[in-house]
Amino acid sequence: MIGTIARKEFSEIVRDGRFKWTAGIMVLLLLTATLAGYQKYSGYMRIQQLAQGESNTQWLKQGDKNPHSAAHYGNYAFKPAGPLAFFDTGISNYAGTAIFLEAHKQNFAIGRPATDQSSVGRFGDLSGAMLLQLLMPLLIIFLGFTAFAGERESGTLRQVMSMGVTNRQLLWGKALGVGTVVLIVVVPCVLVGTFVLSMADLNIVGEGMGTRVAALSVGYLIYGGIFLFLTLAVSAWAKTARTALMVLIGFWAFAGFLAPKAASEISKAVHPSPAFGSWFSDMRSHQIRGLDGESPWITVEKYKVELFRKYNINSIAELPVYWPATRMQKLEELDHPVFDLHFGKIKSSYTEQRRIQDRLGFVAPTLPLRSISMGLAGTDLIQHIKFLEDGEAYRRYMVSEMNGYLSKAAASMNATYSSSNYMRADEKVFSIVAPFEFDPPSLSATLREHRGNFVMLIVWLAAAMGAALFAVKRMSVEKG
Amino acid sequence: MLEAINLKKAYGNMEALKGLDLTVNSGDVYCLLGANGAGKTTTINLFLNFIEPTGGTAKVCGIDVTEQPLETKKLLAYIPEQVMLYGNLTAMENLRYFAQLGGHDYAPDEYRGFLNRVGLQPDAIDQRIKTYSKGMRQKVGVAIALAKRAKVLLLDEPTSGLDPKASNEFSQLLLQLKADGAAILMATHDLFRAKETGTRIGIMNEGRLVQELSTDEVSHADVERIYLEHMHAGDQYSQKVA
Description:
- The structure holds two protein chains of two kinds.
- By secondary structure, chain A is mainly α.
- Chain A has helices spanning about 1-15, 15-60, 65-75, 130-145, 150-155, 155-160, 165-200, 210-235, 240-270, 275-290, 295-310, 325-360, 365-375, 380-410, 425-430, 445-450, 450-475, and strands at about 75-80, 100, 110.
- Chain A has one domain.
- In chain A, strands 1-2-3 form a three-stranded antiparallel beta sheet.
- In chain A, β2 (about 100) and β3 form a beta hairpin.
- A six-stranded mixed beta sheet of chain B has the order 6-7-8-3-9-10, sandwiched between helices. A four-stranded antiparallel beta sheet of chain B has the order 2-1-4-5, with helices on one face.
- In chain B, α3 (about 90-100) crosses α4.
- The mean pLDDT of chain B is about 90.
- Classes of the chains: A mainly alpha, B alpha/beta.
- Chains A and B meet through α1 and α6 of A and α2, β6 and α3 of B.
């Protein structure tokens, strides 16, 4: 019975002019977005790899100099993107793509693609994710809003209900019919996307690509199901197809545009990010005065005394380690907790904001889905924060390798230290610093992180189905 | 076959049906006459369980329609004033869909057989319904009733708006169904058709069945005279109340 209803629904929709236009436009946009997105992604990855290679070479070929000066010369970390970034660009347009890594300073990520875009860029990228998040629901609404309301208006609902069909059978049949049409439009595009993906170099940042695609498919399938059942619920509830369409478009605009914007504003109001001026001056003052109120210079002096006692000596000249380098490293390490505290504040404000946005998922299904989508595509905040952390860890490693080398290699120069008499190192020394590698969050961690969002989507689906069942149960066959 | 026992329907204070007692047996064509708002469509809607009665019972083949609405709907076929079908589907597809909804399935030739039997031109069978005239749609409606093997037919002004030829063809189909043993309840304004095709006539006024006639006992003129008498009586009653 359900199959019969689904088949009739299917052939009716497919023969309708509405379908040809909406499906045509949808397929065109999805394919364009997929191919353009892939081109953009591979272009980005080419530049990323070129730039990282160039920067690594520059580090090695910076010329003979003191290793600590080499740490000042520094290096860059360029953020690689996972292949799924072509599908969902996430926050990558607004987050930096590179960090300058140098001694004594933790820098902000730079190179935000959005700053190079015209104001048109504000409307967002034409990405597969954006189309599936915004246009797929619209397609479902267009194909399904007449399901009950239209049949009631044309009078066929009376005819159907006189045949001895239950309301539930009618609901499931229509859901299956409309759902199949939507899948016929979307699935080929997804297959093309998957094929394009299979051409990508998965070794870059591509852990568990198959699982990611599967989890994304499940997420978007549930999301489509939510809109499908909401559409059928409203169509059964509304007196006319017109009303149904108006209500559904209203909800669509709310879920797709208003709710994400509002969620972001609310999260910023609840957990404001630190203002740059006061944040920076707080950090500077901690750096200068010390976290516990003891000046770093005093701490370093105490450290020196400690070393003298340890080696049982009375002068710097007798130290078995090169004092300027050891002191530099000590000062560097005193900065670490200060950076951790203050950059941590920014990080935790963003993380909290994101968490609040996830919690607001009950307002609109687009919120949890968006979060899942960019999470699995590896273009979300968590991925970006991991990049910043990896970059900072690499900076500390690079500086400590250089200072460490210097403090051992120049140990005999303690007595003769002057601004003109210092040790020079060459490429061989600089090469003890291994090239930067980004270690993105693991797939299992990402899935764990988004468990709540998946639960939220399932709750939405259950609620939408419940609403549809309730609406058809008390559905009237009469017009007006 | 079709039975209403003290059947009532009220919308708030407005009583649309004030205790209807009615029986239609197999082989009967019972024609309900009455002005618009007399309660004819309400009666049919009650038998279809599209609306809940506020009193009494409606039974189809002895089964209460509010208790087992799905069972009773399987037994009956409904043909409204305007048989509504899916414009983008062909007659064949519409028929198959409704037959399957009613729990039946046939071979393609059998579907063609039903459509031939109701007099649909063979070349129209595979055309989309949106190209159909009203008469053709009504024929598909009868074909649906045939395919459903319905024991009871509920017709709501099925011939209004049909040209005389189409209307006559429709009546011929009804007579065939009657000969097959169907119980038919038809709401109509067509006194002539009621006398021609009906076996019994019930005149309704303001929610009440005011008189029942056997068509073989009265002439055309009698039917019209009796009908108008009741309508005038109703008017006078209304004026008195006013």
